[in-house]
Fold this sequence. Notes:
The protein is an all-alpha fold.
Amino acid sequence: MSPEMPEPEGSPPIKDLPGGWAFVGIGSTIAGCVATGVALGLVVDGWLGVGPLCLLLGFLLGSTAAVATVVAQVRRFL
């Protein structure tokens, strides 16, 4: 058998796997989204004086944004 076998008709092309920098980008995206949400939550908490309510809301929104962004980044390789 030759090492370069032809692909069957109708199959999608094989995509290259991401390099190490892609994983660094994903990690920094997660950290940036969560940190931005927490920072904005702390600022709004200080401004409104409502305690950790906005901090928790900022964490949840930042986490949601991180998941949505990472899913979009990972779909490029699927």
